[in-house]
Amino acid sequence: GSRRTLSQHLARALENITLKKMLVDNDTFITELSKLFLNSREAGSIFVTFKSVKTDQNGKVIRGKPDPKVTEEYRCLVRATDGSGGRNKTKLSTMLSQHEIAKFQLVYSAVLKNSMDSLKKKDKKKNRTNKKSMV
Fold first, then answer.
1. Are 52 and 79 in contact (CB under 8 A)?
2. Hey, how many other C-beta atoms are within 10 angstroms of the C-beta on 55?
3. What is the model's pTM?
4. From CA 97, how far away is CA 7, in angstroms rounded?
5. Which of 82, 90, 115, 128 has CA 20 to 30 A from 22's CA?
6. Three-class SS of residue 130?
């Protein structure tokens, strides 16, 4: 088998601790995500990622080779961050089971629609004149 160094064990332990601190329930995630969008209205970015994760019945992530004794379930890990550097960086995550995904995406899409009103609109007149001159 492969041997891990002490630093690899510490890195894995820190990763688990931070995941536990960031992991919130779905409703709290949506609420906090809405706050992130409000805070970044004038300037800033929000990064949201979705990742498929294999878990056991208790929601614990399964890594490595599958164990035939454990019933596996696929869940969706959703992460969000405001991308600001340093100590003020906000990180959130939640785990979605298969039957929660549809409901979550409806609420998530509503949050996105409400947050997109501060985007800059393209000037369509400039694009039309450029296309006419090219023809």
1. no
2. 18
3. 0.64
4. 32
5. 115
6. helix
For residue range 1-18, list pLDDT tens digits in order. 456 677 776 666 555 444
Structure-token match 């164990």, residue found:
67
* Closest by Cα among 26, 30, 18 to 96: 26
**Which region, left, alpha or beta, applies to residue 86 given φ > 0 means left and ψ of -120 to 50 means alpha?**
left
Give the Cα separation of 77 and 129 in Å (integer).
46
User: What DSSP element (H or E) covers 114?
Assistant: helix 101-115
Work out the burial of residue 90: count CB atoms within 10 Å of its CB; fewer than 13 is exposed, 13-18 middle, 19 or more buried. middle
pLDDT tens-place string over residues 62-81 = 777 767 777 778 888 898 88
